Amino acid sequence: MANSSSGDSVVDRVVRVLEAFPEGVSSLPLTELAERSGLPLTSAHRLVRQLADYRLLEQAPGGKVQVGLRLWELVNRNSPILLLRQAALPFMDDIHQVLNQNVNLGVLQGDDVLFVERLSRRGSVANRAKVAGRMPVHISSAGVALMSGQPRAAQNAYLARFKDPAGKVDADHVRRLLATSAERGYAELAGVVDPETWGIAVPIEDRQRRTVAAIGVVVPLAEVRIHQIVPALRTAARGIGRQLGALAPTP
């Protein structure tokens, strides 16, 4: 793969262009796209033109550049996340109908939880989780549920490098949080992301009993019904795990 004068490969530069779009921003002027990707304007213009030829990028109104529908199509066509969402959505909808509050589905990505699906309704409490958005493991009930289900070596490695940017908690606090979650089989965090909400999540296991995802809810702090919510989430998690096994392609 040909390199630029800076040593970057074409793939490096393409990734930088695609990553330049911030969360919630659907289009950017070419000059801003070049600046955010750290590329000279001429290089950015050339890459954008080439990616547009494959419909991975498109021209937006006002001469701006936006992510192309073709890229969305390719990403979603064979992604394992598509299988997870297909298995989870009916169970998420059941929880959503019963609680009339936010329901989230997340997977572990490094030291973050990446949310791959969310169901919300007008009038429900604030939910900071967004589809394709991330949160640090330690401030999300889904993140804690996910990490508490990982092998001990993975947990120890995470705790060894843990640092809270806000400086509110240390690794020992998170270690206790993970241990409590593992013992109970669910994670709960009250007022961490939003002072008026309570996050509750349980891990989802595959056929090999590996924790592969977490399903959680965000409910008003004053209306927490742990004795009702946790059993419902556990039932949903088991159902999703069974569906994952049924939908998984045969080797």
Automatic annotation (TrEMBL):
Keyword Glycoprotein annotated: no
Domain of life of the native organism: Bacteria
PROSITE patterns registered for this protein in UniProt: HTH_ICLR, ICLR_ED
Signal peptide bounds: none
SMART domains the UniProt entry points to: HTH_ICLR
All copies of domain IclR-ED, residue ranges: 70-246
Recorded GO MF terms: DNA binding; DNA-binding transcription factor activity
Any matching Pfam family: HTH_IclR
Positions of the HTH iclR-type domain: 8-69
Keywords assigned: DNA-binding, Transcription, Transcription regulation
GO BP term, example: negative regulation of DNA-templated transcription
Name this protein carries in UniProt: IclR family transcriptional regulator
Source organism: Sinomonas humi
